[in-house]
């Protein structure tokens, strides 16, 4: 699959690059994508949720009323879940939501996500570029030149470029990461992928196996 290479002003450079069929030309495996996204979101959960159970609620343990003769049900403690302020029955406890996923499944998921984006014409390849200084307006102008100002974009660079990263931080729908940081969730969450030519080579090398 051949795609046009654009510059940072959104202009056609007259060059083309070949997208690897082993990555961008495969049939996307939706189940692998689902598993990888599920793991990504599960790993982000803190799992610190907690409610007080009967033994932990701050109430006296005295018997509330006599056992018989009141006409009502027996009540032994204000900690009982049937009373307001009593302990919670089977409430949430702190837990770890993370789970294991094989490396080959994760790699397949990333390839599938890239293939899905390429087949939907949502991948743009750019010439390598940088900014002289961190300026948000420069990054906004860059997106506007590509007609992507109102879309969620993911820019993939070969290595960390501080000026580009800092320029994008205040742009709400923009995200920048290196080829080695790419994950399935961010690939699928973006409307358009912007990949520099050097990052494309690095990405194809990383996912070749």
UniProtKB/TrEMBL annotation:
<dbReference type="InterPro" id="IPR013005">
    <property type="entry name" value="Ribosomal_uL4-like"/>
</dbReference>
<dbReference type="GO" id="GO:0005840">
    <property type="term" value="C:ribosome"/>
</dbReference>
<dbReference type="InterPro" id="IPR023574">
    <property type="entry name" value="Ribosomal_uL4_dom_sf"/>
</dbReference>
<keyword id="KW-0694">RNA-binding</keyword>
<comment type="function">
    <text>Forms part of the polypeptide exit tunnel.</text>
</comment>
<keyword id="KW-0699">rRNA-binding</keyword>
<feature type="compositionally biased region" description="Basic residues">
    <location>
        <begin position="43"/>
        <end position="52"/>
    </location>
</feature>
<dbReference type="GO" id="GO:0006412">
    <property type="term" value="P:translation"/>
</dbReference>
<comment type="function">
    <text>One of the primary rRNA binding proteins, this protein initially binds near the 5'-end of the 23S rRNA. It is important during the early stages of 50S assembly. It makes multiple contacts with different domains of the 23S rRNA in the assembled 50S subunit and ribosome.</text>
</comment>
<dbReference type="Pfam" id="PF00573">
    <property type="entry name" value="Ribosomal_L4"/>
</dbReference>
<dbReference type="GO" id="GO:0019843">
    <property type="term" value="F:rRNA binding"/>
</dbReference>
<feature type="region of interest" description="Disordered">
    <location>
        <begin position="43"/>
        <end position="79"/>
    </location>
</feature>
<dbReference type="GO" id="GO:1990904">
    <property type="term" value="C:ribonucleoprotein complex"/>
</dbReference>
<protein>
    <recommendedName>
        <fullName>Large ribosomal subunit protein uL4</fullName>
    </recommendedName>
</protein>
<keyword id="KW-0687">Ribonucleoprotein</keyword>
<comment type="subunit">
    <text>Part of the 50S ribosomal subunit.</text>
</comment>
<keyword id="KW-0689">Ribosomal protein</keyword>
<comment type="similarity">
    <text>Belongs to the universal ribosomal protein uL4 family.</text>
</comment>
<dbReference type="InterPro" id="IPR002136">
    <property type="entry name" value="Ribosomal_uL4"/>
</dbReference>
<dbReference type="GO" id="GO:0003735">
    <property type="term" value="F:structural constituent of ribosome"/>
</dbReference>
